Amino acid sequence: xxxxxxxxxxxxxxxxxxxxxxxxxxxxxxxxxxxxxxxxxxxxxxxxxxxxxxxxxxxxxxxxxxxxxxxxxxxxxxxxxxxxxxxxxxxxxxxxxxxxxxxxxxxxxxxxxxxxxxxxxxxxxxxxxxxxxxxxxxxxxxxxxxxxxxxxxxxxxxxxxxxxxxxxxxxxxxxxxxxxxxxxxxxxxxxxxxxxxxxxxxxxxxxxxxxxxxxxxxxxxxxxxxxxxxxxxxxxxxxxxxxxxxxxxxxxxxxxxxxxxxxxxxxxxxxxxxxxxxxxxxxxxxxxxxxxxxxxxxxxxxxxxxxxxxxxxxxxxxxxxxxxxxxxxxxxxxxxxxxxxxxxxxxxxxxxxxxxxxxxxxxxxxxxxxxxx
Length: 373
What we know:
Blueprint lengths: L3 H16 L6 H26 L2 H22 L3 H23 L6 H6 L1 H10 L9 H20 L10 H48 L10 H17 L5 E7 L2 H8 L1 H18 L5 E6 L2 E6 L3 H16 L3 E3 L2 E3 L3 E7 L6 H16 L6 E2 L5
Parallel strand pairs: 6-7
Antiparallel strand pairs: 1-3, 1-6, 2-3, 4-5
Helix pairs in contact: 2-3, 3-4, 4-7, 6-7, 6-8, 10-11, 11-12
């Protein structure tokens, strides 16, 4: 009973690999191929024994052990070596079987089937520094080996001559397996491509987010806010949404830096950022506008923005920053402005800034929401 969960987990992992749900891993794919090839060669051991071709029966016994070694190599993470060993064996198999039972047995189909593997490796496992025509080069080398084997086979009689029915059966068997090899490698090629594209998209999203975020506070940066302001301003002009701004600046921030050090100042900025995030609503946007200055884009009229600004001011006034064994208190002054007809976006920002500095010059630690300055 204890083995069932582990077995189920393996089955789920196998199914996710086949469907691509869990991403495509080159190592796991080659492990599956190694096990599949071991099974195929084990079948060939008995098939050739039944046909009376002891040479190929013995060869497949050796190759079954060979692929067991390949599987252990891949399990250790040496994927490229595993692919190389696979290529060598498939080409060797074509040459040996051609001279033992003849070209008509169809073992050359496996050599043709491995050509997509060259490109698969080039895309997903090779170093970027390697030339784009490397897989094409190896494909041409494979073609030359195939032609040379065919040419040589026309000068020699096969060691064992099978009957027409028997050779046809071997031919059909090899065509079927070669078709499966091409089909599944193409399947994994597509899954690998999709997986890589998904990873690339995730990285681009992450890079985009990082480019829009202030690294210290985790708030949006000025670049992102400027784009958000333009969008919100268009909506306000069209009458589809209200728009207000809150500009905030920490009072006597230079004194905090000079007295306790810039690291303490950074902690103060982080604390303010946390409070700002906690005071706004879903749909509002908060950014670090520059230095110790913050800008909030509020979806709502002046009264809503003023209420949010007052809540921010009160929470910061009542907060304590503990740093270096000391408890540090500070305040913030905020200016509010709201969208009005015939008021440009630049004027709207300037009005919030003017209200802020009006408060700075008239006592600090307050919210100023004058309609005009």
